[in-house]
Amino acid sequence: MFRSALTWLRYIKSCHLEPVTASPARTISTATQALRTPSPSSPTRINVFNLSKVPRYDFSKPSGVMKSYTLNFPSSSPLVSLSFDGDSRIFVLTMLGKETPDNRLTHTFIAQGLLPALKHVEQQWNNMLSSGESDQGAALISTGGTDASAKIFSNGLDFEKAVADPRFFDTHLNALYEKLLTFPIPTIAAVNGHAFAAGFGLACTHDYRIMNAKRGYMCMNEIDFGAPLPHGLQQALASKISDQKTMRKIVLEGHRFSAKEALDAGFVDGLSESPQDTLDKAIDLAQKLKAKAKMNAWGCNKEVIYAQAIKITRTKHDDATNALYAPRAKM
Predict the structure, then answer these.
(1) Does residue 218 sit in helix, strand or coil?
(2) 157-198: per-residue pLDDT in tens?
(3) What is the DSSP string of 24-41?
(4) Which InterPro entries does the record associate with it (predicted)?
(5) Cystine design at 154: which of 13, 99, 100, 103 (Cβ 3.0–4.6 Å)?
(6) Would you call 65 helix, strand, or coil by DSSP?
(7) Neighbouring residues of 167: CB distance < 8 A, sequence distance ≥ 6
(8) What is the pLDDT of residues 245-288, one digit of tens each?
(9) CA distances from 249 to 204, 234, 279, 300 (A)
(10) Distance CA 272, CA 182 (A)
């Protein structure tokens, strides 16, 4: 694969690999349990439009202990809550259902909630790398909530708002998908309930999915209301679903996959018994995976295996909105 040592060194440089400083073995404290029951309150808040104000911790201390915190995005009228446990190095992003109760992927939700939260996590990971504190790795979990009433992970787009903006897919939805497809640490979707259409795509842009077996379906229902599938959304699915019979069942038949069916089809990695259990199992998986990111090759390798999907999400599709809206306009 590499014809010379120089080629190999250039590859390493392109991946931004950082030397890892040895540090004393650490045990995971009970603070991790706080992630399993996220609090709606936010003790620490920042202005998400000025990420320079994000606290950068002094990772050079011998103890290597990081402070746990919770942030809201945006800081006023929050759409997303982000919790970080300093002992386990696990981030939990909770979609709060404030703008829409079913976490629809609107302009505002993406631009002021999801993307700023993801950029914050990415910045903190870069801080760990530059400070030689990446030895434990890190991971990100996304959830639609842990309350028993949390029935929906994400119900897709707000259709009318999406088609009103001819650049929505390029500037918002595809940007969100690309960010997750290239994210430098393991990502797990804790699918607590229904994941429909673009919400299904959101789950698929995570590296792994744990799904509540007691409530919820995964479905691409555009076919049922006459909407062509946007390029970026199709690639979000294709990044995790290679079997063409399964893709046909999803896209052309609009089949509603139960958690068990999704597991059997291979695009869900584990089942759970409740929204809380979904997060618990996602945390367990994150604990197993997070150290794989410590040398900072996780994101580089994702850019290889998801190359086609990333290429499409980075390509401008000026016709995407018109194509999506056209069938309805003729009705």
Answers:
(1) strand
(2) 998 888 888 889 999 999 999 999 999 999 999 999 999 999
(3) ---PPPGGGHHHHS--S-
(4) ClpP/crotonase-like_dom_sf, Enoyl-CoA_hydra/iso
(5) 103
(6) coil
(7) 318, 321
(8) 999 999 999 999 999 999 999 999 999 999 999 999 999 999 99
(9) 16, 13, 28, 31
(10) 27
